[in-house]
């Protein structure tokens, strides 16, 4: 499972890389980027929190 | 063309008088007014003043703020007052593609990496303010700390110096908390224009290590930016850099002063402060937004929007509706206190540092404090924000 950021919606709130720096990073102007680090299945509850915490609704999870 | 009220009635949209300009309850308990409004529905019509739609749940707020094709900021106007008053503070008062060009130029100056180096200075100012409060022995938090920290820090960073901090803070207050006529608004903006234009012109010949110099050197798509637009953006920074963070800090401390168990969480483990700030911004969202005006026909929650329709974005109510209690260690609940969509607060990363450092220093030096029993909170609501007017505290400083 991996995170996906809809870059047309991201406006740089920075919640993702603050809450989960192991999976997200900030680009040069503070917009979120997904790191190349798989999300273990055991982290499902935390994953749902991160998706919900994005104020723009820009984050989703891709299975597989 | 049918009026907003006629269309609201024809389409079963609730009608609820929501009057930010005249409702005196906003001075007593503004949050009750927000909570009452959000119970009406996610979208309703308020006949107050010139009449306007109100977006009053998170999904509707988010939809409107993300849908910049229908909901324009040009002209940027205060939608909910009796008189139409337009603003000129770019790039807030722009739509794409102009907005996109200038926002891109500004963004690198305010990114988390670009502002991290400001932390030591913010910490230093916070300590100086606490020193002064402890020397005096009494404290009105809103005036002695919340209003001072952002103004002292931001005016210095902008390059205006702090000799004239009281007058400059007062101008930012007027721009935020008055319900002005167009003439009054133009007058406030002209005064701020004169101050920041002086600094911008000065830095063209004599660049320094400050934000005014960075504004001068800024390029949009490789092109020099016209002076009026640079000055307009500096004007917005001048207003938003002072008053917003100050107002938010006042509400945060008000909560912590009345909820000792929440305060204890942060004193025991200051690493909880960033999450606590987000949660308290959500619950005490200072609210302001001038709203939007539809530039073309569209649809919102099934309601047929016509070009020219006004909408107010009830962000405070919408955020509170997401969860009716404060829980400082909460994850997974968003807020719109920094706005949403393309106009989201560009200074948010600086504001977060100011609030975090301010709260760290305060609780390290003054871990125990309380609101006097006889204190009765009073608030004011202006064209952009609501504010706790004063917060007297009884202090128990840490032993040093």
Automatic annotation (TrEMBL), chain A:
InterPro entries assigned: Fe-S_cluster_ET (IPR051269)
Q: Which domain of life is it from?
A: Bacteria
- The reply on keyword Ribonucleoprotein is no
Q: Which cofactor does it need?
A: [3Fe-4S] cluster
Keywords attached to this Swiss-Prot or TrEMBL record, sorted alphabetically, are:
3Fe-4S, Electron transport, Iron, Iron-sulfur, Metal-binding, Transport
Q: Write out the GO MF terms.
A: 3 iron, 4 sulfur cluster binding; metal ion binding
Q: Which SUPFAM superfamilies match?
A: 4Fe-4S ferredoxins
> Matching Pfam families, A to Z?
Fer4_15
Keyword set includes Transport:
yes
Q: Which Gene3D superfamilies match?
A: 3.30.70.20
What is the name attached to this protein's record? Ferredoxin
From TrEMBL, chain B:
Which GO molecular function terms does the record list?
A: heme binding; iron ion binding; monooxygenase activity; oxidoreductase activity, acting on paired donors, with incorporation or reduction of molecular oxygen
Q: Which family does it belong to?
A: Belongs to the cytochrome P450 family.
Tell me the domain of life: Bacteria
Q: Which UniProt keywords apply?
A: Heme, Iron, Metal-binding, Monooxygenase, Oxidoreductase
* Family matches, as InterPro entries: Cyt_P450, Cyt_P450_B, Cyt_P450_CS, Cyt_P450_sf
Q: Pfam families attached here?
A: p450
Record's protein name: Cytochrome P450
């Amino acid at each position: 499972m991996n995170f996906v950021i809809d870059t047309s919606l991201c406006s740089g709130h920075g919640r993702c890389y603050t809450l989960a720096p192991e999976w997200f990073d900030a680009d040069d102007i503070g917009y979120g980027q997904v790191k190349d680090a798989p999300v273990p299945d055991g982290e499902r509850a935390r994953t749902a929190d991160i998706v919900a915490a994005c104020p723009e609704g820009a984050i989703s999870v891709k299975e597989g | 063309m049918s009026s907003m009220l006629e269309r609201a009635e024809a389409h079963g949209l609730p009608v609820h008088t929501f009057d930010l300009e005249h409702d005196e309850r906003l001075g007593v308990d503004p949050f009750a007014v927000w909570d009452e409004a959000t119970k009406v529905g996610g979208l309703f019509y308020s006949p107050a003043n010139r009449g306007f739609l109100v977006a009053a749940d998170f999904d509707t707020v988010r939809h409107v703020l993300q849908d910049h094709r229908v909901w324009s900021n040009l002209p940027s106007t205060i939608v909910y007052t009796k008189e139409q008053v337009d603003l000129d503070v770019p790039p807030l008062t722009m739509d794409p593609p102009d907005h996109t060009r200038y926002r891109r130029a500004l963004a690198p100056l305010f990114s988390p990496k670009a502002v991290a180096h400001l932390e030591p200075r913010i910490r230093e100012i916070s300590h100086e303010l606490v020193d002064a409060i402890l020397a005096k022995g009494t404290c009105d938090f809103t005036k002695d700390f919340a209003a001072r920290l952002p103004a002292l820090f931001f005016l210095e960073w902008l390059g205006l110096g702090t000799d004239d901090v009281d007058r400059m803070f007062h101008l930012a207050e007027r721009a935020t908390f008055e319900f002005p006529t167009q003439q009054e608004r133009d007058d406030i903006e002209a005064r701020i224009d004169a101050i920041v234009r002086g600094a911008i012109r000065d830095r063209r010949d004599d660049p320094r290590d400050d934000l005014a110099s960075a504004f001068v050197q800024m390029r949009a798509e490789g092109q020099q930016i016209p002076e009026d637009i640079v000055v307009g953006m500096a004007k917005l920074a001048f207003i938003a850099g002072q008053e917003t963070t100050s107002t938010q800090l006042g509400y945060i401390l008000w909560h912590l002063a009345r909820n000792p168990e929440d305060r204890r969480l942060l004193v025991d483990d200051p690493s909880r402060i960033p999450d606590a700030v987000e949660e308290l911004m959500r619950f005490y969202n200072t609210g302001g937004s001038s709203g939007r005006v539809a530039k073309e026909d569209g649809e919102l929650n099934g309601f047929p929007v016509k070009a020219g329709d006004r909408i107010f974005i009830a962000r405070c109510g919408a955020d509170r509706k997401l969860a009716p209690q404060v829980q400082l260690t909460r994850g997974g609940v968003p807020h719109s206190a920094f706005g949403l969509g393309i106009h989201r607060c560009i200074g948010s990363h600086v504001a977060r540092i100011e609030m975090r450092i301010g709260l760290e220093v305060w609780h390290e030096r003054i871990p125990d404090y309380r609101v006097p029993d006889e204190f009765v909170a009073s608030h004011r609501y202006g064209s952009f924000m609501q504010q706790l007017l004063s917060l007297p505290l009884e202090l128990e400083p840490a032993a040093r």
